[in-house]
């Protein structure tokens, strides 16, 4: 019994030493690792490279996020099929997709989660209001971040890790405001925005440009990105309708807004940005969508050299048509992967300079490249109009980075 007790005590001591993290046998006095961080970490020199993605995947803007995510996943799947070598070994890219629900607080939590997971980089976020606070987390932890956000504030922060997949509001608003006055001939303009970083930012830039072109701007009206009833703010335009009403915001608001305009007998032209230019707007607005105009970064995908091929592959893979954001997510993801490939490393310190120097033929641009702030250099805006229930391109306009 005594010998048995001694044996039990010895076993307990040995177990305690192993659990306590003390030195184990090996001759160098160093603790053995419980697993190689390099094979699981996104930023290490391992085979699996994790790329984070975040956008609204639930809630009223989830159709944007899912479309965006599909383009990112498509690029990652293609890269895996190509057998690209990074970190001296065949790379296996993995997407870590997280829902930020278009909420700034949740987006920051997602960003911190990505930091803990040691992702190699992040594609997203989608909204300006979520991307701006999250970008601070990425900058502090040196994680490259390519987002869909369009607010000028994003790249005005001076961060080295921030890049876009789409034109900024200053670029789009400048072109659209001038176009509305000089080309379409609108002299009086009503403006409504949803007070989000995106909606307000785009409306501000549009107003500055239209005013500079000589238009009269009526007092600004405001709503929010949860509203569905707009009669009270639209009534401000009922007695003296402006030539055009510009809305800075998304289709969950712009679609019911145009329906209520028709109901009130307001015949002003309705003009908006890219978050209105999608099939969901037409589906919800119905007949009231007819004649609505909206802008979108880039030229129509069918007119791009690789556009038709992308549409065919996308439909075959996902069983649905391209909406808006998939090509931008695809290009942004390939920009990040190509930078890693050029650096032969998934470590930010190694591939970040290559990402900043990106100049590649993309789906959304023949020269997908960045200026020193992380804004796109090659900028084009296309104006679309709803005709017979379809978005039809009216005219493509050029703009340099602002």
Automatic annotation (TrEMBL):
The keyword Heme does not apply. Keywords: Amino-acid transport, Signal, Transport. SUPFAM superfamilies: Periplasmic binding protein-like I. It comes from the Bacteria. Residues 48-387 form the Leucine-binding protein domain. Residues 1-25 form the signal peptide. Residues 30-40 have a biased composition (Low complexity). Residues 24-45 are annotated as: Disordered. Belongs to the leucine-binding protein family. This is Branched-chain amino acid ABC transporter substrate-binding protein. It comes from Vitreoscilla massiliensis.
